[in-house]
Design a protein that fits this description.
mainly alpha, two-stranded antiparallel ribbon, 2 strands, 570 residues
Amino acid sequence: MSVCVLALIAAIPILLALVLMVGLRWPAIKAMPVAWLTAALGAVLAWGLPVGYVTALTLQGFVTAIGILIIVFGAILILRTLQQSGGMETIQYGMQNITPDRRIQAIIIGYMFAAFIEGAAGFGTPAALAAPLLLSLGFPPLAAAVVCLVFNAFPVTFGAVGTLVILGLKFLQPLVGEAVSQGASGLNFTNMGEFNMAIGKWSSLLHALMIYILPIFMLGFITRVFGPNRSWRDGLKAWKFCVFAASAFCVPYLGFAWFVGPEFPSLIGGLVGLGVIIAGAKAGFCMPEETWDFGPHEKWAAEWSGEVKYDGKTEFKPHMSQFKAWLPYILIGLLLVVTRIPELGLKGFLAAQKLEFNHILGYESVSASIAYLYLPGTIPFMLVAILTVFLHGMPATKVATAWRQSIATMKNPTIALFAAVALVSIFRGSGITDTILNPNAYPSMPLAMANAVAGISGQTWPLFASFVGGLGSFITGSNTVSDLLFAEFQWGVATQLDLPRQIIVAAQATGGAMGNMICIHNIVAACAVVGLSGMEGQILKKTVWPFLLYGTVVGIMATMMSFVFFPGLL
C-alpha cells in the first residue's frame, strides 16, 4: 500500500473527530470514542495489526489517561478549595486593585503566570491552573479556556525545566554523532549537548516574533468574539501593554536560551516578566486609557458559560491577606521548581515511584506506568489543596464541599480522555518494527502522514515543518511525544533536501509547542476545569486560527533562517 493511501487512512480518525466536534458540535465524550474506534479499525484492517495488540495499545492509553486525569482533578481541587476558603475572592479583590481591565488580566495570568507554570511543570498544567483563575475573575468560561490554551504555546518548547528538548530529542543522539563524525557541512555543534543548545537557540528565535504578535492578536480576537462591541479595535487599544509584557518575558527568555541552555528560558522569563508587568500595571505604565470588560452577563451567549453559572458578583472583599490567599500558588510554584530540577535530588526519587503495567496482554513492547508522586496533580496540586485547609483554617463542611464538587466534575472528561489517549496509543504503536505484529512493515500512522506531506513539499519544507510538529501535539497531546515521534523524520527530510538540520528540528520543537492550542487532550482538560465539558468543538473552532497564524509566521521565519543564515543552500 502506498504512503499516500496510508496517510489518508491514518487521517480519517482525525478528520472524523474534527467533523463531529466542530461541524456537528458533538461533545468529545461522544466524538472521541468514535474516532478511537475508527483508528482501531484502520490499525487492524489497513496496517494488519493483530486485534490483541490493538487492544493492548488501547489499555496502555487508558493507563496514560489516568495520569492526565490526576492532573486535571488536582487543578480542579485547588480551585474549589480556594473558592470555599475565601482565598479566591481575596485574589479577585487584589487583582481588581491592580486593574479591573480584563485585557490586562488576561496578559498577567493567561500569558505570563501560565508561562512561568509551563516553564516549571509543563504537561498541561498552565491551562489547568490559569483558566480557573481567569474564570473566577469574571471571564466567560469559554473565553478563559481559549485564552489559556492559545497563550500556552511559546513557553512550551522549554517547558518542564527543558524536558521537551532534552528528552524529546533523545532519539537523535546517534544521528547527531554520525553527522559530526562524518564532518557534515553546516553543523555548528560537536555533541548532543551542544546540539540541544543549538535547538534551544533557534527555537527561541522562531518563537520570538509570535511572543510579540500573539498577545496583540489574542486581545483583538477576544474583544471581537466576546466583547459587547464585537470589535477588534477594543483589544488592539492595549497593544502598548502587550509589547511591554512581551519584552519583559522575551529578554530573559532569549538570554537564557542563548547563553545558559534549554532548562530555564520559560521559567525565568515568566517569573521575571510577571514581576515586571504587575509593577508596571500598578504604576499605570503602558496601560490603555479606558477599562474594558465583557459586558453585562445577561447579554452573554449561552455557550460561553456551559455548566458554570455566573453569580452576578462584581464587587469582592478580602477574607485574608493577599499573601495568605496567594500562598497556595506560591507553594505550587516552589514545589514545581524543587521537584523538577534534578540537581536538587527530589526529581529522581519522585519519578521512580510508579505503578507499572508491563507487557500488557503479553505484548512485550506495550507497557505503561503512572508516576503517581511526580504527576503535578498529586505533588503539588493535591498536596497544596490539603495544606490550604490548614493555612486558611477551613471547616470540615467546606472541605467536603470542595472535594465533592471536584469529583463530580470528572465524569465527562474521564470518558473523553480515555478514548482520546487510547487513539494516541494506537497511532504511536502502529509503526512497531516487529514483523509479526506489523507484517507489512508500515510506518506509524503519524509518520505516514508526515511522509506524504514531505513528499509533496520539496525545498519548501521549512514552511511546513512546524505544522508537522503541531500535528504531533494535536494527536499525542504532548510536545515531548511529538518530538519523539517526528524529530528523526525531520532530521531525515532535512538531510535528504540538504537543509540545515538544526533549523528544521527547531521548527519541529516550535511546532510541537504551538500544537498545544489545538491538542484534544488539553482542550478536554481545560473544558473540565472551567465547566465546559461538551464544548470542545467550539473551543477548537476558535483556537485553530491563532494556530494557523503561528505556524505561518514560524514557517516564514524557518525559511528565512534556512536560506539567509545558510546561504549556500540557495
